Amino acid sequence: MVSSETPAEKPAVKPTDEPVPPDPAAGSGTATGPATGTATGSGTATGSGPATGPATGTATGSGPATGPATGTATGSGPATGPATGPATGSATGSGSDDEGRFGEPGRPLNRRSPFLFGFLFGLGAILAYALFLGVRNAASILVLIFIALFLAIGLNPAVERLRRWGLRRGLAVAIVALAVVGLLVGGLIALIPPLVTQTTELINNAPDTIESFRRSETVNELIQRYDIVNKVQSAINAGTVGNAVGGVVGGARLLFGTVFNILTVLVLTIYFMAAFERIKETGYALVPGSRRERVRLLTDEILTKVGAYMVGALAIAILAGVSTFALALALGLAYPFALAVVVAVCDLIPQIGATLGAVVVSLVGLASSITDGVVCIVFFIVYQQIENYLIYPNVMRRSVKVSDVAALVAALVGVGLFGVIGALVAIPMVAAIQLIMREVLVPSLDER
Predict the structure, then answer these.
(1) What pLDDT shows up at residue 96?
(2) Based on C-alpha coordinates, what's the Rg of the chain?
């Protein structure tokens, strides 16, 4: 007989929000619950079963931990299942595989040790002396590099002007270099033959020139008072000038050395112009990032002023040489090319260079006649006023501004160190130092 009783219905399980603690699993699986526990083991957290509930316990494996733990794993095998829940615990393992690769670091040095201080001081002294010897032995090469660098700075405004017209930097550098080479070759072809001839004649005729001074009633008394003629005559008779420029071997060596130096400076100048931006960026990269923009602005300002000064100084010197050449031709003076070159080179020396060139030309004019000498003196007095108050301010209006005392001291120091080139770069160097002091040093002192 079939019973009519139905089985009693089981009461429905009421859902609850309380998390069900997961059972430890003994296999590999996927951890899907959020992890809130703390991983304190030193290696791999390894479980053997899937963890599906939120983990609140501690994972204590013995191998390297390769993924975030989301459940309580107490097994000894590697956990290979991916963990998909957010891990909020902290891992405090003992280190990575690379730790100890190069050994344990030693104890820090005692910086107050007399032995360490003496060792570092001696090492610094040796390095400083070696640097001094290297600079002294390579002085001639360093001077050529120095000249090429400043020529590149001086020619960079022309390159930038061509770049603003739409040309690439390489093409702009090539055009400027070809123009410089053309001017140099043309100038040498035009100047060297008459310059050599007239300079040789000037040296050979020096005794006759001195005799003409001796016969001059205007300057005879002044010359005799200081015994100038006898001193100059003794120097010439001793062969000082002839020994300096005479001799076939010496002349050939001088010519070869001059050509080599000119070519070296020319090649270095072209290289510096081509790599000018890269050189600047390399220098900026060595500056801390917090100061890089300010250093960039100061450097660009200095380079702009230095370039403007050098271009302006060369233009003024060429103008002085052309004016002297025209004067010498008008008066019929001997050696017009030589006198023009002397005045142009001397005019590169700030403050005193123009006066030195004027004295040389005036003496040659006095040797020709009193009238020529007076005309030369008056001409250079007037020309220097025009140059100082009209030409120089207009040409140098975008260039450096240096006091007369600083310019004179810098020119003398530059001439003593590097000759005419030193005098040419002395003023821009002083201007750069003044700009750095005004923009960097003075504000830092005012903040104290």
Answers:
(1) 46
(2) 42
For residues 268 and 407, membership in a common domain is answered with: no
Regarding whether 264 and 360 lie in a shared domain, the answer is no
Range of the domain at 188: 154-195+253-286
How far CA 274 is from CA of 79, 264, 279, 304, 352, in Å, comes to: 60, 15, 10, 17, 35
CA angle 79, 85, 91 (to 5 degrees): 65
Q: What is the DSSP letter of 392?
A: H
pLDDT digits (tens, 9 = 90+) for 204-248: 777 776 676 666 666 666 666 666 656 666 655 555 545 544 555
Q: Is residue 439, in this structure, part of any structural domain at all?
A: yes
Check residue 298 and give its pLDDT. 87
User: Residue 35 and residue 80: Cα distance in Å, rounded?
Assistant: 17
> How many structural domains is the chain composed of?
2
Over 50: is that where the pLDDT of 25 sits? no
189 within a domain of the structure (yes/no): yes
CB 382 within 8 A of CB 399: no
388 and 352 part of one domain = yes
Do 381 and 269 sit in the same domain of this protein? no
Query: What pTM does this model have?
Result: 0.53
Whether residue 265 sits in one domain with residue 165? yes
Six token digits for residue 84:
């998909």
Please give the mean pLDDT across all residues of the chain.
Answer: 72
Please give the angle made by the CA atoms of 55, 74 and 60, to the nearest 5 degrees. 80
> Cβ contacts of residue 19 below 8 Å, gap of 6+?
53, 54, 56
- Tens of pLDDT, residue by residue over 60-90, are 444 444 444 444 444 444 444 454 444 444 4
Map tokens 């205007």 to a residue. 218
Q: Do both 328 and 258 map to the same domain?
A: no
Q: Would 122 be classed as within a structural domain?
A: no
Separation of alpha carbons 26 and 75, rounded Å: 7
Q: Alpha-carbon distance 296 to 311, whole Å?
A: 22
Q: Which string of DSSP letters, residue by residue, matches 133-180?
A: HHHHHTHHHHHHHHHHHHHHHHHHHHHHHHHHTT--HHHHHHHHHHHH
SS3 for 43? coil
Residues 346 and 436 in one domain: yes
